[in-house]
Design goal:
Layout: H1 2-32, H2 42-65, H3 70-95, H4 101-126
Helix pairs in contact: 1-2, 1-4, 2-3, 2-4, 3-4
């Protein structure tokens, strides 16, 4: 069951994130173009997605399914997304030259929305 939960959350996460990245590519390129690789390193991306989706299932979806409501799923997912994306963006802002505040704010907000939504979709499928 956990593998199926992983796959459902991964599919939801990937679809939602792909739409976001495609629609926001100009924003990210405008602010981070000088740091961006010519093409993404897909191996690192795959490792991130596998680990992060596992984290969503373990820390947000499973607790919500084990006794919470859809609000628990949304809240735990949103909190996890906020913590994770804030860790990434605030560390970059603290250690890299010219990491824009706009990226920090938008990216953390996106982590909250994306992770909350993916967790909620998982809860709706398996509840």
């Amino acid at each position: 069951m956990v593998i199926l939960q992983f796959l459902v959350v991964a599919a939801a996460f990937a679809v939602i994130d792909a739409i976001w990245l495609k629609s926001m590519s100009k924003f990210y390129r405008r602010h981070l173009g000088h740091l961006m690789a010519d093409k993404p390193h897909l191996g690192y991306a795959v490792v991130f997605y596998v680990l992060y989706i596992a984290g969503i299932v373990f820390f947000a979806l499973r607790p919500a399914l084990d006794g919470g409501s859809w609000l628990t799923a949304l809240g735990y997912g949103a909190a996890l997304g906020g913590f994770a994306y804030a860790t990434y963006d605030l560390t970059n802002a603290a250690t890299l030259k010219n990491w824009p505040l706009a990226i920090v704010v938008v990216d953390i907000a996106w982590g909250i929305v994306l992770t909350g939504a993916a967790t909620l979709i998982g809860w709706l499928v398996f509840h």
